[in-house]
Design a protein that fits this description.
The chain is mainly beta and 176 residues long. It is built from two helices and eleven strands, in the order αβββββββββββα. The strands form three sheets. It has a five-stranded antiparallel beta sheet. It starts with 8 loop residues before the first helix and ends in a 25-residue tail after the last helix.
Length: 176
């Protein structure tokens, strides 16, 4: 067993404020991982996680957009100091400003598990694009890599149903 140590979240937040990456992995163990995320200037994808996800708002508030099993789009507000559980398989999109911070706890992915990142048309809600990948190491910032794939071709952002083309947001400090 390695030495047990506490993590100073204030120091991690200061590091994220200075750096270009929106996520700092606190630990990745065989059964559990934790990371601190700062808000992104723009977020539109829905993440489908193969395990439950626990989110704690450390600083600021978040709107967690999610899709019910019946296909209804809803928003849960998570205020500073509150904890929120998102069940496995629920498409969700935590949206909070760049000066806010969220602690996320979840089970590390098993070798046969896939994460899904989905985008929907802003006009008609039809699905635009999907990235499916095994997330073996959260330090690789899989959300940003999924955005890179989504933004790589206009066809990924063009709705087959209504023809709307989703614009690429202006990046601020390397964020999507």
């Amino acid at each position: 067993m390695s030495e047990l140590k506490a993590v100073n979240l204030e120091a991690v937040m200061k590091g994220l404020e200075r750096g270009a990456t929106p996520v700092s992995t606190l630990w990745q163990e065989p059964d559990m991982m934790a990371f601190l995320a700062k808000g992104r200037a723009y977020r539109s994808e829905f993440h489908v996680d193969p395990s439950d996800e626990v989110m704690v708002m450390i600083k600021g508030d978040a709107n967690v957009h999610y899709i019910t099993p019946e296909g209804e789009h809803k928003v849960a507000v998570v205020r500073e100091g509150e904890v929120f559980r998102c069940p496995a398989g629920t498409p969700h999109s935590p949206r909070f400003p760049p000066d806010a911070f969220m602690l996320v706890l979840e089970r590390k992915r098993r070798p046969d598990e896939q994460d899904r990142f989905l985008w929907f048309c802003e006009k008609c809600k039809a699905q635009l694009y999907e990235v499916v990948k095994h997330v073996a190491d959260y330090r690789e910032d899989p959300v940003s890599r999924a955005y890179d794939a989504f933004h790589s071709a206009e066809s990924h952002r063009t709705c087959a149903k209504c023809g709307h083309v989703q614009k690429i947001p202006r990046r601020a400090g390397g964020e999507s």
